[in-house]
Amino acid sequence: MSVTTKVNLTKIHFEMGGENKSKPSLFKRLLPNNCDEIKTVSGRYNGGTFASERVAGLYVKWINGGVDRSFRSLMDKEDAALSAIEQVLMIKLRRQYVVGDYRIDGYDQENNVAYEVDEGHHKTTANYAKDKRRESKIKKMIGCRFVRVAV
Fold this sequence. Notes:
alpha+beta; Endonuclease, Chain A; 4-stranded mixed beta sheet; 3-stranded antiparallel beta sheet; 6 helices; 38% helix; 23% strand; globular
């Protein structure tokens, strides 16, 4: 393990309540593929997810809500989710980014990551299949990584 990934996020996760919604693996999926500041190590006793101090700080902020709850309720779910991603990852997303005939909810052009916010209507069987086809087409067009955020 490199020096940059010395903080144990798994330990932090359990110390902060160990809720399933705040697992390090879920947080890791929000980060760009090329992020070398977070690593998962297998092993019953020495395993876990390890990160740099910077990423560990972002992880703690993410667990605690990431954004000021007083203004979160004023925004719709999609905007709130994308704003939280921007704040936690310290990136700027291009909202409603056009790719062919499609729009991506949030696009991180620098890291080539598409963020799609899935609200309740995305959970139906028909919409799930439609979303997967759409995701596949967008990936083929721009070669991006896709992150789906359920709200």
